Amino acid sequence: MVGVSISEELLDAEACLALVADELCGGSVSFVGSVRKETNGRRVTRLEFECYTSMAEKEMQKIGEAAIQQFSVSHVVIHHRIGVLLPGDVAVVIAVSSPHRRAAFEACSFAIDRLKETVPIWKKEVFEDGEQWVSAHP
Amino acid sequence: MKVKVLTFGITKEIVGDTRVELELVDDSTVSDLKNRLELLYPALRTLKSYFIAINDEYASIDQRLLSSDEIAIIPPVSGG
């Protein structure tokens, strides 16, 4: 099963783990990505996430399907939050379950790496003295 | 043909709107579209990279456009 969601709601890692729970799976792994309060020594005031929702949901679905295919895991859930987030807020949760733990770890790592490469979500870092779209320029 | 191009993130700021409408010759490709966009908005060339998506999928550079397509500029993504 693949489950994806993009919303402005608070994310709940426990709820994501509950979604991948399966008596055939001996291991579940979750990744929780949250907002750092510093980037290169500059104090981050907030992050503003925006999204091309229809495409992003499809890309997230593809990542879940690729993870199941490549690592033989059973379930992948990817939830991403958008809107304005403050330091400490959770921006993304990925949960994976599998009969065996190694595949779950690998699939979870694959999923967050791929998400950062392909899913059309953008974040602007807002500092006390300026702002920038992350990764936009060389 | 007329195409509408959606913009996001930094490209929304470069274009100054959430979409841009362009008149292109029929059978134009993604490459033609990028050339036109860069002529109109030279700041696009300062980006690390950007892709064009057609109907929610990353498009190849030689893919042809239809006026009915949903087209979007995808600047470097930074989710997670």
TrEMBL record, chain A:
InterPro entries: MoaE_sf (IPR036563), Mopterin_biosynth_MoaE (IPR003448). Its EC number is 2.8.1.12. Pfam families: MoaE (PF02391). It comes from the Bacteria. Signal peptide: none annotated. SUPFAM superfamilies: Molybdopterin synthase subunit MoaE (SSF54690). Keywords: Molybdenum cofactor biosynthesis. It catalyses: 2 [molybdopterin-synthase sulfur-carrier protein]-C-terminal-Gly-aminoethanethioate + cyclic pyranopterin phosphate + H2O = molybdopterin + 2 [molybdopterin-synthase sulfur-carrier protein]-C-terminal Gly-Gly + 2 H(+). Pathway: Cofactor biosynthesis; molybdopterin biosynthesis. CDD domains: MoaE. It is an enzyme of class 2 (transferase). Heterotetramer of 2 MoaD subunits and 2 MoaE subunits. Also stable as homodimer. The enzyme changes between these two forms during catalysis. Belongs to the MoaE family. This is Molybdopterin synthase catalytic subunit. It comes from Sphingobacterium suaedae.
Automatic annotation (TrEMBL), chain B:
This is Molybdopterin synthase sulfur carrier subunit. It comes from the Bacteria. It comes from Sphingobacterium suaedae. The keyword Iron does not apply. Keywords: Nucleotide-binding. InterPro entries: Beta-grasp_dom_sf, MOCS2A, Mopterin_synth/thiamin_S_b, ThiS/MoaD-like. Belongs to the MoaD family. Pfam families: ThiS.
